[in-house]
Amino acid sequence: MTPLAHARVAPLLLATAVLPGCGPGLDLVEDPSYRALPRTAPGVLLLAALEDDLVRVHGTVTDGLWFDLDESVAREQAFEYALVDAAGTTLYSNGFPGPMQVREYLGAYTEPYGVDLLAAYPQIGHFPLLIPRLDGAVEVRFSLRDEAGRSQEAGVFPLSQVDAIAADIADAHPEPVGTEALWTSGDPEHRLDIAILGDGYTADQMDTFRDQAAAVADEILGREPFGAYAGGINVWRVDTPSEDEGASFDCTGLAPCVDDWADNALGSIFAIAMINGLLGTDYSDRMVFQLDQWKVAKVAAHVPFDTVMVLVNTGKHGGFAVYYASFTNADDRYAEVGTHELGHSLGLLGDEYVSDACVVSPRLGLPPNVSEWADGDPSWAAWIDPATPLPTPSDAGDDVVGMFPGAFNCTDLYRPAPSCKMKTNYGEFCPVCREQIVRRIYDHVDPIQSTTPEVSWRPGGWEVSVPTLHGDVGLEWQLDGKVVQDTEANEPLVLRAEDVAEGEHVLSLRAVDRSPWMRGNDAGLVDEVWWRFTR
């Protein structure tokens, strides 16, 4: 892959002591009071299942995974989890809609016909959950939204069992025949790591998968905002040959499509095509995913990963994303479709078109790029010019952000732009979707790469350097709460001795995203470190 010109990564600067006779020292000690959590922690992959209204953990993967810890993320999602200490205090919480999406979507298609697909294929309710391994945490508590949209307890998992059930569970996963880093920008501990897996490629087709995976990586890193943040992204490939080519129920043009199972490595299936064959329905059947998400997670764990993309080798068009992004190579624009699906799985974005069944409920909620009318006050209001009419007519202009009717397959919901990659699969993400993706990238990336600064004496003062990511990240240095210098990424602080009185001081470094990608009250600040020192 050709490196992107803007994907620059700073060399790691090692902390050095000030030599005797070179001037007074400045002993910076990281202040633990500025944050309650470590910046990163080992990751633990829980192999969980939604069983009725309870979440149960059946196995774990414990090796080689990392979790970036910025803060507890209060996203008010359909599924949430909290790590709790012995006193019952929540140390960290997060959430995503995945488990409830599976239940609500499949239920909408099958329950009117008296079919319980989760009962027939319980593995559809399996899901992977990557959590941080925190000191002091004793259990994970799960919660789900009920029919009124209220969060309800849905089970507890004692963390004392993590290592005890770390062995492979009943359904073994295929062993990869190879892995490769397609793009590396630095330590996975501080990066967004994307793993690309292939399914439905036979052993003789592995070279085809490798070429197509490279094309997907190029498309991601060449598409904004991923290109602008490529210095914080790694992309990996995992090779898993299948016995059969294709996906289950990819029988294009056959009616009904029944009993068309493929022996592929990851269990990719066109589930709605199977439902149509069983029930005689004619739902849109583009939905492709992997029947056993545990298997996908265990294969992906052969490389560092935060999110996964599965490229399926079949002539049938399709895509879908709940936990991971799945898409097919049915035509030469497959990489663009994959980036759309990544918008779902990583960005937690919703579709902005109206062509499938409208499935909404208080249990699911709405994604950040979809809104009800709510008096014309969507979550993306900071992007809307006061002169823009609401609702916004379709001819308002290609670059206008407003509230355009039709989104999430529902005519009474609204999207932020007339056109967007989340509407068409192709082209660019709209400004609102770009911002959401940037925020999700920062969930996995620490712009301040080290909390151990390099300090050296210069005539009249000190020079303090900390390795940071390039791009549009600026550095705001504060001494005792007062801004003393505003620099670009990796530019050192020059601290004059005459500005530092005798006594105790607090020096802080704030990383601020100054790109045009972010707006809103909390836009800008993306990382922060404090140090204490005495002169």
Folded structure, characterized:
The relative contact order is 0.13. Helix 3 crosses helix 6. The chain has 8 helices and 26 strands. It has 4 domains: 95 residues, Immunoglobulin-like (Sandwich), CATH 2.60.40; 112 residues, Peptidase M64, N-terminal domain (Immunoglobulin-like, Sandwich), CATH 2.60.40; 168 residues, Collagenase (Catalytic Domain) (3-Layer(aba) Sandwich), CATH 3.40.390; 73 residues, no CATH class. The N terminus is likely disordered. The protein has 535 residues and is of the alpha+beta class. The chain is globular, with a radius of gyration of 25 Å. A 6-stranded mixed sheet has the order 10-12-11-15-17-16, sandwiched between helices. It has a 5-stranded antiparallel sheet with strand order 1-26-25-22-23, with no helix packed on it. 15% of the residues lie in helices and 30% in strands.
Relevant CATH superfamily of the largest domain: Collagenase (Catalytic Domain)
What's the total count of β strands?
Answer: 26
- The CATH class name of the largest domain reads Alpha Beta
Helix content: 10-25%
Alpha-carbon distance between the two ends? 50 Å
The CATH topology of the largest domain, please? Collagenase (Catalytic Domain)
CATH-derived architecture of the largest domain: 3-Layer(aba) Sandwich
Number of folding domains? Answer: 4
SS-derived structural category: alpha+beta
- What's the quaternary structure here? single chain
Could you give the topology of this structure?
Elements lengths: L28 E2 L9 E12 L2 E8 L4 E3 L10 E7 L4 E7 L1 H13 L6 H4 L5 E7 L4 E9 L5 E8 L19 E6 L8 E8 L6 H16 L11 E7 L28 E3 H9 L8 E3 L2 H8 L6 E6 L6 E3 L3 E4 L5 H12 L58 E4 L2 E6 L5 H4 L6 H12 L11 E5 L2 E5 L7 E7 L2 E7 L4 E4 L7 E10 L11 E10 L1
Parallel strand pairs: 11-12, 11-15, 15-17
Antiparallel strand pairs: 1-26, 2-3, 2-4, 2-7, 5-6, 5-8, 8-9, 10-12, 13-14, 16-17, 18-19, 20-21, 21-24, 22-23, 22-25, 25-26
